[in-house]
């Protein structure tokens, strides 16, 4: 049965609850979108090393944050949640453009951010030596593609990817780009050079200056402390794995793989 306007209005007015983690850029995406749209929500912090029964029940497939609960119904995956917010509250500030091609283009580059750029940045953070150098090259190649789109492509002449105001792609790229400076501080590796990527660099500065972004992103000192601990853990795990592999090569029976801590898979190192 088709919903009446009154029914749709009642659904939109149902309470919103967000399950997330303070350091997760995926969580920050949803928090920022909710603030940009002026939507009130309850926030529940998750301990990713000891996930709540509620999180496991609401997201049994991936068992990760963020999870948005609207009127008792749960949605997972940040980009899906952002698009849902646009669909459910069309009268609020839009994240996606009205033109179908532009909407598809924004979705494409969101996928690029999560599929290529983010993993490359994460690889820089979790490695050293030649492996890290290869990851840095991959980051720079990916950033060059974004820079080209800002200079000559679909986003040419825009202050934000969404135009005069931030849109879906700004939220996805921006909630994570602040990790670049944190990773540079922790690893000593320069990822974003203003001379090499001037348009991306200018976009990031404008994005980070927004009041809603400042309200969403944790303090740099806290992020640095967290990142140093995570990098120490990841490098330790990598060293343990290499040691186990060397031992298994000479042992009669292969050594069991050392399991990673429960929280390791949930560490947000995406851009």
TrEMBL record:
<keyword id="KW-0808">Transferase</keyword>
<dbReference type="InterPro" id="IPR010987">
    <property type="entry name" value="Glutathione-S-Trfase_C-like"/>
</dbReference>
<protein>
    <recommendedName>
        <fullName>glutathione transferase</fullName>
        <ecNumber>2.5.1.18</ecNumber>
    </recommendedName>
</protein>
<dbReference type="GO" id="GO:0009407">
    <property type="term" value="P:toxin catabolic process"/>
</dbReference>
<dbReference type="InterPro" id="IPR036249">
    <property type="entry name" value="Thioredoxin-like_sf"/>
</dbReference>
<dbReference type="InterPro" id="IPR004045">
    <property type="entry name" value="Glutathione_S-Trfase_N"/>
</dbReference>
<dbReference type="Pfam" id="PF13410">
    <property type="entry name" value="GST_C_2"/>
</dbReference>
<dbReference type="InterPro" id="IPR045073">
    <property type="entry name" value="Omega/Tau-like"/>
</dbReference>
<dbReference type="Pfam" id="PF02798">
    <property type="entry name" value="GST_N"/>
</dbReference>
<dbReference type="GO" id="GO:0004364">
    <property type="term" value="F:glutathione transferase activity"/>
</dbReference>
<feature type="domain" description="GST N-terminal">
    <location>
        <begin position="14"/>
        <end position="93"/>
    </location>
</feature>
<feature type="domain" description="GST C-terminal">
    <location>
        <begin position="99"/>
        <end position="230"/>
    </location>
</feature>
<dbReference type="InterPro" id="IPR045074">
    <property type="entry name" value="GST_C_Tau"/>
</dbReference>
<dbReference type="InterPro" id="IPR040079">
    <property type="entry name" value="Glutathione_S-Trfase"/>
</dbReference>
<dbReference type="InterPro" id="IPR036282">
    <property type="entry name" value="Glutathione-S-Trfase_C_sf"/>
</dbReference>
């Amino acid at each position: 049965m088709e919903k009446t306007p009154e029914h749709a209005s009642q659904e939109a007015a149902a309470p919103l609850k967000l399950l997330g983690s303070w350091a997760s850029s995926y969580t920050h995406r949803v928090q920022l979108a909710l603030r940009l749209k002026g939507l009130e929500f309850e926030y529940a912090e998750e301990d990713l090393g000891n996930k709540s029964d509620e999180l496991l029940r609401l997201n049994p497939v991936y068992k990760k944050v963020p999870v948005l609960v609207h009127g008792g119904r749960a949605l997972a995956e940040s980009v899906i949640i952002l698009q849902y917010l646009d669909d459910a509250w069309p009268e609020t500030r839009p994240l996606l453009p009205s033109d179908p091609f532009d909407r598809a283009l924004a979705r494409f580059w969101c996928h690029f951010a999560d599929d290529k750029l983010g993993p490359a940045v994460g690889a820089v953070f979790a490695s050293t030596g030649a492996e890290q150098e290869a990851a840095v090259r991959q980051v720079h190649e990916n950033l060059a593609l974004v820079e080209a789109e800002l200079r000559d492509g679909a986003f040419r002449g825009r202050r934000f990817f969404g135009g005069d105001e931030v849109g879906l792609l700004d939220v996805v790229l921006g909630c994570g780009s602040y990790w670049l400076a944190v990773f540079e501080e922790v690893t000593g590796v320069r990822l974003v050079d203003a001379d090499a990527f001037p348009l991306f660099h200018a976009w990031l500065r404008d994005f980070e200056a927004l009041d809603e972004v400042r309200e969403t992103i944790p303090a740099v000192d806290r992020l640095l402390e967290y990142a140093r601990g995570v990098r120490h853990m990841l490098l330790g795990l990598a060293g343990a794995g290499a040691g186990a592999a060397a031992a298994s090569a000479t042992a009669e029976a292969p050594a069991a793989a050392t399991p990673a801590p429960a929280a390791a898979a949930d560490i947000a190192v995406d851009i």
